[in-house]
Amino acid sequence: MHILVLAFKSMMNRKFTIALTIFSIALSIMLLLGVERLRNDARESFANTISGTDLIVGARSGSVQLLLYAVFRIGNPTNNVSWESYQDIKRQRLVAWTVPLSLGDSHHGFRVLGTNLDYFRHYRFGGGEALQFATGVPFADVYDAVIGADVAKNLNYQLGQEIVLAHGTGEVSFMQHADKPFRIVGILRKTGTPVDRTVHVSLEGIEAIHVGWESGAPRPGLSIDAEQTRQMNLQPKSITAALVGLKSRLAAFRVQRFINEYPEEPLLAALPGVALQELWDTMAIAQRALLAISILVVLVGISGMATAILTSLNERRREMAVLRSVGARPWHIFVLFVGEAGVVMTLASLTGIAALYVTQLIARPIIQSQLGLFLPIHPPSTHELMLIGAAVSAGLLVGLIPAYRAYRYSLADGMTIRL
Amino acid sequence: MDTQADAINIQNLTFHWRKEGAVVLDLPRLLVGRGERVFIKGASGSGKSTLLSLIGGVLLPQSGDVSVLGQPLRALSSAKRDAFRAEHIGFIFQMFNLIPYLPIIDNVLLPCRFSRRRRLNIERRGIGLRDEAVRLLEHLDLPATMLQRPVTELSVGQQQRVAAARALIGGPELVIADEPTSALDADRRSGFLRLLLKECAEQNTTLLFVSHDSALEPQFDRGIQLAAINQAVNEGG
């Protein structure tokens, strides 16, 4: 009988303790893999949110802040970009296209984005995919709205339905633009980006609902109804930010410098890739802390295993003596114990991986709706396999301690049965 | 291997545990012939377990020589001594002889896992390993119907008989029994001894039987008082 078969049979004799040990290590490995997976997939999901855009332009602030409010719809802009400056940028020789973005309103916690048809033409996500309509068409009228997939799903909205936008970006708003309802004319296909959680209207629509709101609130005693508003000049005076596409990527720095040094007003142009990296870096510390904790949890699991094996050592001294008497070598005894650690770590890894997939299946829809992170289910990556390998190696290494003790015992005891 | 050589030949052996420790064993000479069944009487603490470890090659004496079946053990590396023990010697201990997590048959067959020679000894006779184990167990009054039971459910007497079957399987030249009957009551003691001696006689196995119980001595070819031949104890008083 191979000595590992003996190790296995011996473990079967102690199923319950061993199963508990395997369970605790499996949980720790699941945690480690889960944290790693979240780190990598969240980064990917972030990076997939915007592509094809060469510059993001907004009022002067930080590039991370600009990225957050313009692309991720998180936080609020500090200032606006005047319509004249936007037109000036648009006219630049090196600029191929621009998409204006106007933020500041919401609908049941979903952000409202004022833009124009160029948004549907030029916005790209993932590997350069364009927005597609699940149903309906882009907005044409002032009071038309196009909603993202999650908005439609969560609020159970259909084409033709009328919605009222709220002033401000809070989940609950006390100031509604109730006098000017919008009609849903299009629902976008799921993208796995913040677009899914956005209500899109035209810039004119944004302008229309704020007529008479110049001070930030409706002027008392003055109300202009929706049809009257249509007749007014609805060209916006400012926008929140703009996405800019260039004729050549190589021009990015030149255009960026032009915008950053724009004399009329303080502006900021950010390279999306660089800003994403910066954003990622700000989160790096928290991520590293998570990783460190999960590694520590694995080590705790492994030392639990070593403790369990060490505890069993004394009861097993007579087993070792019997094995020696029938011709087992001290290294057989050594392998018997290291083998146990190996079997425990292997089974724990497999259980941990299985548990990870089960958890992912359950948690994926929740993470997607709550955090807007799209986490794909994929087979273990090389990196993850290396992590598992490292955990198993650490387990074997720690398993050497009881194995070495057993080896010393069997050398010292020989065939003498000590109790 | 010299088939004519003595089963055990000890010359001028001294052994002490620690470097400067007291001498535990000092045996000028001990000879056991092939096929002899020898009773060694020794109280506990008289160094008998140490003597058995020296014959088994688990320990080496500080001086003197131990030859088993004509093979000087000192000439072998510790790995070779482990292999030699597996090939040629069967052991029976006082108690707890069995591996609790192995079935009875696997306990009996354990030496065959470590010794190719003992495995081949059985296979050469055209018998399967398990059949041989069952045959031996039946000879030792353990019917085949019992073999499915976990070893932990066996009585002490039954456990000792399984241990005897394990010591004998594959026909080792030498069987060493270290107080195998001390945990048995008088009836079972003689029953066990009768079966063991009969089986050794059939296989022409040399038997070295260590016990403090002189009542068993008459059933052996020869009896040796360890205290009488061990100079270390004599010197100590």
TrEMBL record, chain A:
Signal peptide: none annotated. Residues 19-206 form the MacB-like periplasmic core domain. Pfam families: FtsX (PF02687), MacB_PCD (PF12704). It is found in: Cell membrane. This is ABC transporter permease. It is a multi-pass membrane protein. The keyword Transmembrane helix applies. The chain crosses the membrane at residues 289-313, 333-358, 385-407. It comes from the Bacteria. Residues 292-410 form the ABC3 transporter permease C-terminal domain. The lineage of its organism: Bacteria, Pseudomonadati, Pseudomonadota, Gammaproteobacteria, Chromatiales. The keyword Membrane applies. GO terms for cellular component: plasma membrane. InterPro entries: ABC-4/HrtB_transporter, ABC3_permease_C, MacB_PCD. Keywords: Cell membrane, Membrane, Transmembrane, Transmembrane helix.
UniProtKB/TrEMBL annotation, chain B:
Residues 8-236 form the ABC transporter domain. Signal peptide: none annotated. PROSITE patterns: ABC_TRANSPORTER_2. GO terms for cellular component: plasma membrane. The keyword Mitochondrion does not apply. GO terms for molecular function: ATP binding; ATP hydrolysis activity; transmembrane transporter activity. Keywords: ATP-binding, Nucleotide-binding, Transport. The keyword DNA repair does not apply. PANTHER family: ATP-BINDING COMPONENT OF ABC TRANSPORTER-RELATED (PTHR24220:SF611), IMPORT ATP-BINDING PROTEIN (PTHR24220). This is ABC transporter ATP-binding protein. It comes from Sedimenticola thiotaurini.
